[in-house]
Amino acid sequence: MSTIPSGVNQLESKVGGLTVGGRVHSLSAWFVLALRLMMGYAFAYSGFTKITGEFAAGGYLSNVAATNGNPLAGLFAWMGSTPWFVEFANVAVPWGELFIGLGLLVGAVVRLAAFFGALMMVMFYFGNWDIAHGVINGDFAYMLVFLAVAAFGAGRILGLDKYIEQYEVGGEALVERYPVLEYILG
């Protein structure tokens, strides 16, 4: 993973022989921070209200996909009719939302949090399947926001990831000693 020198507002990426790039405005970091904080608050709040209220995934999993022409209706039906999976979802959804939200709010382990946030949004996208107004909806847009937060390393912008990455272990910065951490921090 290459890094752009401080003060250079240039993006470039090469995928499959295609190169895209451009210049970004100096205020872009503030917008990336705003996206991280917005999604962090939304997920932390949603998880907290599920934990402190009544939340049960079984009815949603069993019924929602079968009624809306969902291409994954069979998968959702299986999830809703499998007791151990329903129990798992009853814990994983609210606590996952809370921890994803808190990670984004403080800027710690942001890429990992954003990955799981995007994964949850993909599941919500298919669970809430409705293409009456096209295939793009809020769940799809939020998935892209999570991916953008991860891609831009938003945890380094007024977040703890900046300090976690620089933490020295044996005289080396943590991410230099363990490069795989670049995929979960940032």
What is the quaternary state of this protein? single chain
Number of strands: 4
In the sheet with the most strands, the strands line up as: 1-2
Order of helices and strands: EEHHHHHHHEEH
* Chain-averaged pLDDT: 89
| Proportion in helices | 55-70%
Largest sheet: 2 strands, antiparallel
Low-confidence stretches: none
Tally of individual helices? 8
Query: What portion of the residues fall into strands of 2 or more residues?
Result: 5-15%
Q: Cα-atom Rg, whole angstroms?
A: 19 Å
Structural class: mainly alpha
What do these coordinates show?
α4 packs across α5. The chain has 8 helices and 4 strands, in the order ββαααααααββα. A two-stranded antiparallel sheet has the order 1-2. A two-stranded antiparallel sheet has the order 3-4. The chain has a domain of 128 residues. The model has no long low-confidence stretch (mean pLDDT 89). The longest helix is centred in the N-terminal third of the chain and has 25 residues. By secondary structure, the protein is mainly α.
Output the keywords.
single chain; 186 residues; mainly alpha; two-stranded antiparallel sheet; two-stranded antiparallel ribbon; 9% strand
